[in-house]
Amino acid sequence: MITYALSRVAQAIPVLLVVASITFALLRFLPGGPFDREKTLPPKILHNIEARYHLDEPLSRQYLRYLADLARGDLGPSYKYLGRDVTQILRDALPVSVQLGAVALGISLVLGVSFGLVAGVKRGSAVDRVVMLLAIMGVSIPSFVLGAGLVLGVGLWAGWLPAALWEGPLHVVLPAVTLAALPTAYIAQLTRTSVVDVIELDYIRTARAKGLAEFRIHTAHVLRNSLLAVVTYFGPLLAVLLTGSFVVEQIFAIPGIGRFFVTAVTNRDYPLVMGVTLLYAALVVLANLAVDLLYGWLDPRIRLGRPQT
């Protein structure tokens, strides 16, 4: 398994190189520049600024310079936040986004799997219909609508929880719930479908015939084999939590990476946009690797990195 993990990490390097190259090209060919303002700068000042950041060089030389800096772990200076490197900005903002994403991930897994298991075991009942109705609502309501509704209803009108900012544990609740709503709904649907399929298999009937308690059958046998579908969704789930945080962090004024990314795109802050994009790409690659490793733990029949015979 260690050999397999190392090989996957090695394979991720060209993937990240392609992501960096595509992002570099898209940013350079978009209309406008990082120093285009409503008030035009004098030509001499603009030339000096572009020379400082090597924007006056040919694109090929800028690209090679960027790759050389990237190989040294240097993501470059931010054009918007003067005096700060992209690495420093990411280091300061990443813990905030990780905390928000971790709480949202925990909510999604606990509630999604629990609701899906109950709905699958009680399929066709009123509980099943209620859970599926809530899942459909979770998929249908956009995060910006849900977030705005929670800010108004729970934060401002009722005053039960802080409506915005990131100043303590209570400030995590509303944005985490907003971010977790969509993946919770998907996980509940996936778990229910898997439970309905697994619960009819022969080994479940055998377990009942041996006199095992229903709770043990559902948790030790049905749930574990139903989690393969959820694990498959784990990679895209991380992407949903990361990209969804762009909107959520803006709504709740959270100083995370998503908020920096939005402002970086608006300001054409090339190094910051590319740094955030590469970070997200690396996280998605690592999440997919974690999915493959979890497969081997949940189903011992799966052998990673070995040819099938």
Number of domains: 1
- Percent strand equals under 5%
The termini sit apart by: 18 Å
Radius of gyration: 24 Å
Protein structure class: mainly alpha
Quote the CATH topology: MetI-like fold
Helix content: over 70%
Main beta sheet strand tally, sense and closure: none
What would CATH call the homologous superfamily? MetI-like
Figure out the total of helices: 12
| Highest-level CATH class | Mainly Alpha
Unreliable runs: none
In short:
The chain has 309 residues and is mainly α. The protein contains 12 helices and no strands.
Describe how the helices and strands are arranged:
Blueprint: H1 2-29, H2 43-52, H3 59-71, H4 86-121, H5 126-140, H6 143-157, H7 170-198, H8 202-209, H9 214-232, H10 234-251, H11 257-266, H12 270-298
Identify the notable features of this structure and list them briefly.
mainly alpha; 12 helices; MetI-like fold; 309 residues; 0% strand; globular
Give your account of this protein's structure:
The chain is an all-alpha fold. It has helices at 2-29, 43-52, 59-71, 86-121, 126-140, 143-157, 170-198, 202-209, 214-232, 234-251, 257-266, 270-298. The two termini are 18 Å apart.
